[in-house]
Amino acid sequence: MLIQNLITQDWKKGFRAQGFYKNLAVSIMMGLFGLYMAASFLFLGFSLNEILEKADDKLNPTELFNGAMLYIMMIGLALRFFMQQLNTLNLASYQVLPIKRSSLINFLILKPLASPANYFLLLVVVPFAVKSVVGYYSASVALRFVLSFIFLVWFDSLTAAFLKRKFGSGVLSGVIVLVILASVIALEYFKIFSLFHYSGLLYGFIVFKSYGLFVSLLMVAVAYLLNRWFFSVNYYAEKFNRKLERNKTVATDLSFLNRFGIIGELIGMEIKLILRHKRTKSLLYMSCVFLLYGLLFYRGTTYANMPSMLFFVAMFMTGLLMLMFGQWFISWDSSHFDCLMTSNIPVRTYMSANYYLMIAFNVLCFVLTTPYFLFGMKIVYLHVAAFIFNIGVNIFLLMFLTTFNTKRVDLSKPNVMNYQGTTYKSFLIVLPIMFVPMAIVGIMSNFLSLGTALWTLTILGLVGILLRKQLLTLCVNQFNRRKYKLAEGFREAE
Amino acid sequence: MIQVTDLQKAYNGVTVLDIQGLTIAPGESFGLVGNNGAGKTTFFRLILDLIEPTTGEVKIEGQRVMRNDAWKTITGSFLDEGFLIDFLTTEEYFTFVGKLHHKSEGDIALFLEGMKEFFNDEILGTKKLIRDYSKGNQKKIGIAAALIGDPKILILDEPFTALDPSSQIRLKRFLIDLQTRLNMTMLISSHDLNHVTEVCKRTVVLEKGKVVRDLQTNEDTLKELQAYFAV
Question: What pTM was estimated for this model as a whole?
Answer without folding.
Answer: 0.68
